[in-house]
C-alpha cells in the first residue's frame, strides 16, 4: 500500500487513511473511523500546518464522526475551529466553508441550541443558493435542515412550506424514487402528523415505505424507519389493530437485522420526533447529512 511505499506521513498516504475513515464512518464503525481521522489530523497539522485546507478537511471529518457518537461538545469545538479556518483561508462563501456552517448548525441542533442552529442553517442556505443555485443538492440539504430545526421549535407552517419546496425540487432534480426525495416525503409526513393531519401523513408515509422497499430493499435502515411510521400515525388515529400489525412487522424485521447491534449511523434518519425510531434524528440521510470531505 501507499504507506509502505511512500511513508506514514506522505500526503497520498494520509488521503487514503482519510478516505478509509469515511468508509468506516459510513458503516457505523465510529471508533475506528475516529482513530483514523485523529491520525490524519495529527499528521497533517505536523506536515502541512494547522490552517492548510487538507488539515481543515480532517478537522471537519473528525468533528462529524464525533457528532455521530454523541460527543457534541468536542464536535462543536472542532466544527467552530474548522469554520474559522475555512473562512480565513478559503473565504466565507467557499463551498467548503458553507459545508462547515451546515455541520456546525447540525451539531448545535443536536444539542437543542435551536436559535443559533437556525441562524447557521439560514446562512448556509443563503450562501449555497447564491454560489451553487436554488436546486443544487447541497442547497436542498440546507433547506431540509432548516426545515428540521424549525420543526424542532414548533414552527410548523414555515416547516411545511420548506419541506414542500425540498420535495418538489428533489422530485424534479433527483426523481420521485431517489432516497433523498423519499427522505423529504418522510419529513413532510412527519410534520403533518404533528399538526394532526393524520390522513395526509399516513398516505405520505405509505408512499415513502413502498418506494423505499422497492429502491433500497426491505431491510435497509431507512426502510425500517418507514415501516414504523404508518403505525405511529394509525395509533394517533386510534386505528389500533392496523397499527399493531404494522408494528409487529417492524419488530420482526428489526430483530433480524444488524440494527439491533447498534452499528448504524446515528444521523441516518430524518424523521423528526415524535415519529423518530431508534432515537435517530436528522440531517443526514442523508441528503440530510454532514458534509464529509473526500480527498
Automatic annotation (TrEMBL):
Biased composition (Polar residues): 251-260
Region spans: Disordered: 237-295
Biological process according to GO: microtubule-based movement
A Gene Ontology molecular function term of the record: kinesin binding
Annotated Basic and acidic residues bias: 237-247, 285-295
Protein localization: Cytoplasm, Cytoskeleton
Segments passing through the bilayer: none
Origin superkingdom: Eukaryota
Cited InterPro entries: Kinesin_light (IPR002151), TPR-like_helical_dom_sf (IPR011990), TPR_rpt (IPR019734)
Membrane among keywords: no
GO cellular component, one term: cytoplasm
Pfam families documented for this protein: TPR_12, TPR_7
Keyword terms, alphabetized: Coiled coil, Cytoplasm, Cytoskeleton, Microtubule, Motor protein, Repeat, TPR repeat
Entry annotated with the keyword Transport: no
Similarity section: Belongs to the kinesin light chain family.
Name of the protein this chain belongs to: Uncharacterized protein
Organism: Penicillium freii
Amino acid at each position: 500500500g501507499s504507506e509502505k511505499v511512500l511513508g506514514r506521513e506522505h500526503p497520498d498516504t494520509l488521503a487514503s487513511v482519510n478516505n478509509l475513515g469515511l468508509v468506516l464512518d459510513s458503516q457505523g464503525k465510529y471508533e475506528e473511523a475516529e482513530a483514523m481521522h485523529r491520525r490524519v489530523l495529527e499528521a497533517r497539522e505536523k506536515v502541512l500546518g494547522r490552517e492548510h485546507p487538507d488539515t481543515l478537511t480532517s478537522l471537519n471529518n473528525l468533528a462529524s464522526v464525533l457528532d455521530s457518537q454523541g460527543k457534541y461538545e468536542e464536535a462543536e469545538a472542532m466544527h467552530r475551529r474548522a469554520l474559522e479556518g475555512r473562512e480565513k483561508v478559503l473565504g466565507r462563501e467557499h463551498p467548503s466553508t458553507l459545508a462547515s456552517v451546515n455541520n456546525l448548525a447540525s451539531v448545535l441542533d443536536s444539542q437543542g441550541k435551536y436559535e443559533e442552529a437556525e441562524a447557521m442553517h439560514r446562512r448556509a442556505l443563503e450562501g449555497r443558493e447564491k454560489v451553487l443555485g436554488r436546486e443544487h443538492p447541497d442547497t436542498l440539504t440546507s433547506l431540509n435542515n432548516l426545515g428540521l430545526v424549525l420543526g424542532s421549535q414548533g414552527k410548523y407552517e414555515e416547516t411545511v412550506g420548506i419541506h414542500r419546496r425540498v420535495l418538489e425540487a428533489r422530485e424534479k432534480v433527483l426523481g420521485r424514487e431517489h432516497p433523498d426525495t423519499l427522505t423529504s416525503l418522510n419529513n413532510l409526513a412527519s410534520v403533518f402528523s404533528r399538526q394532526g393531519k393524520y390522513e395526509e401523513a399516513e398516505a405520505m408515509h405509505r408512499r415513502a415505505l413502498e418506494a423505499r422497499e422497492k429502491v433500497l430493499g426491505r431491510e435497509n435502515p431507512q426502510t425500517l424507519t418507514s415501516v414504523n411510521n404508518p403505525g405511529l400515525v394509525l395509533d394517533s388515529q386510534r386505528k389500533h389493530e392496523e397499527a399493531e400489525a404494522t408494528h409487529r412487522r417492524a419488530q420482526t424485521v428489526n430483530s433480524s437485522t444488524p440494527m439491533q447491534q447498534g452499528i448504524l449511523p446515528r444521523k441516518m434518519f430524518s424523521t423528526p420526533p415524535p415519529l423518530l425510531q431508534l432515537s435517530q434524528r436528522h440531517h443526514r440521510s442523508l441528503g440530510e447529512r454532514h458534509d464529509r470531505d473526500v480527498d
